[in-house]
Amino acid sequence: MDFHNEQHVAARRGARPGLPAKVGKRLAAIASCVLAGAAMWGCGETAQLSVAQGTGPRPELPAPTKTLLPTVNIAPATGWPQGSAPQAAAGLQVGAFASGLDHPRWLLVLPNGDVLVAESNAPPKPEGSKGIRDYVTALMMKRAGAGTPRANPNTMLRDAHGDGIAEIRSVLLSGLYSPFGMALIGERLFVANADAVLSFPYRSGDTVITTPGTKLLDLPGGPINHHWTKNLLASTDGSKLYVSVGSNSNVGERGMMLEEGRAAIWEVQVDSGAHRVFASGLRNPVGMAWDSAGQVLWTVVNERDELGSDLVPDYLSSVQDSGFYGWPYSYFGQNLDTRVEQSQPALVATALVPDYALGPHTASLGLARSEGGKLPASFAEGMFIGQHGSWNRRPHSGYKVIFVPFQNGKPAGAPLDVLTGFLNEAGDAMGRPVGVAIDARGALLVADDVGNVIWRVSARP
Fold it and tell me: Which end of the chain is more exposed for a tag (fewer CB within 10 A), N or C?
């Protein structure tokens, strides 16, 4: 189907029965922007602030920008040309730990040094459930390098020679349902599918697990499952799992009844599956990590869209037990989002201000504490963050791995670039960083789901 036919189909679908005409036309126009390229169609606006101005403990928060159409500025996914790699910061070097993977998203380093990789993508939509919104989303995902069917394995990688390259590769688990987060407690490996947490028996050195998983608990799923990635983090004593669950919409536009248990981090008892909401109002929390004492939970959160290129900054924050962080009613504390029809002033009055903004639309996903790392001193205390990159900001933001330095248990100072160069001069995405982890030898591993590579960042000799 050529562009003009695709455009006609998008417009025709926009008027489908059951979808409000105004919404249908708007989504059809967005589809046209995606198909033709945002620059040609002038979809949206341009940032007036730098990413740095939207970063740190007190980011600039301008008034929302209202446009006829939301900003669409996708970096087309191309993959890395032969022999290419991202650029490491001064004092660092980068090489491929493993390549030829299939959309690697998340990482877990096991005690014996083996590395588990979740090769995953969004679960398929049920037949008959796809409307114009799904059509537009699929177009954007395809252009950005996602949206194609995957085998959904968890793959084991082993650096048997200790040279920074995985020589041994094995599918540890297969038949999973859009897996993402992983956690090992004793001899139980927990995997978060898009709709449930499963438990598998594991012994150190296993390369294949054939025993069926045991369901620990169900997670919010369903035919929409907008933010489908569910991450896991074990408590330091191994008695609990923390599960990050993203919202089912941008700002509750589908109705809050579909947000039950979402936009939250759950606390789950490992022995029974009993659970509670540990913190709420977190639009899409993904990466989680403990502080150096193993007492304070930290997360990175993807904030809301369609308020312009300068809003709203994603953020890194400590997470308070029973804390509320604003979504969908407010952002970065008590800044009201007037698009939300049902205001909750009493709840908004309790909204906590995140610790540290990470710039608007950077899609900050991966999070790893620096402890155990053997990189230069400037990377000794703080958090590594994988920024997947924007699709709705002009110019682009993210598309890098950064380090936020800490002092006395809190972010302190400007972020440092660790890996850059994921976009080429034409604005194409050769790679997109996602999960990050410290390996057994103190290097930083980075999952690149467009380049299909696990990069390994180490100190220069």
Answer: C
What confidence tens digit (pLDDT) does each residue in 46-63 have? Answer: 999 999 999 999 999 999
Distance, in Å, from the CA atom of 451 to the CA atom of 421, rounded to the nearest integer, reads 12
Give me 33's structure tokens. 């922007």
DSSP state of 449: T
Rounded to 5 degrees, φ, ψ at 138 are -60, -40
Parallel, antiparallel or unpaired: strands 104-109 and 400-407: unpaired
Instruction: Let me know if residue 55 belongs to a domain.
Output: no
Q: Which amino acid is at 21?
A: A
Q: Look at the chain and report how many structural domains it folds into.
A: 2
Contact 188, 128 (CB under 8 A): no
Q: Chain-wide mean pLDDT for the chain?
A: 89
Q: Which amino acid is at 249?
A: S
239 vs 241: CA distance, rounded Å: 7
Q: Hey, is 122 helix, strand or coil?
A: coil
> Which residues span the domain enclosing 133?
61-459
Residue 310 has which token pair? 């300068």
Q: Give a yes or no: residue 51 inside a domain.
A: no
Question: Is residue 298 one of the residues assigned to a domain?
Answer: yes
pLDDT at position 24: 52
Residues 37 and 73 in one domain: no
Nearest to 367 by CA among 408, 431, 314, 414: 314
Written in H, E and C, the secondary structure of 50-81 is: CCHHHEECCCCCCCCCCCCCCCCCCCCECCCC
Question: Does the structure show a pLDDT above 70 at 145?
Answer: no
Residues sharing a CB contact under 8 Å with residue 188, sequence separation 6 or more, in sequence order: 199, 200, 201, 202, 270
Q: What digits encode the pLDDT tens for the residues 148-173?
A: 555 688 999 999 999 999 999 999 99
Check whether residue 183 and residue 81 sit in a common domain: yes
| 304 within some domain | yes
| SS3 label, residue 277 | strand
Q: Cα angle vertex 92, ends 91, 95, to 5°? A: 155
- Predicted confidence band at 39 (pLDDT cuts at 50, 70, 90)? very low
Same domain for 335 and 407, yes or no, is yes
With beta carbons less than 8 A apart as the criterion, state whether 180 and 246 touch.
no
Pair (17, 124) in one structural domain: no
Q: Could you tell me if 76 and 37 lie in one domain?
A: no
Cβ(74)–Cβ(394) under 8 Å? no
Q: Which residues are CB-contacts of 346 (< 8 A; sequence separation ≥ 6)?
A: none
Q: For 185, phi and psi rounded to 5 degrees?
A: -130, 110
- Tokens read off for 361: 């639309």
**Identity of residue 112:** N
Higher pLDDT, 185 or 131: 185
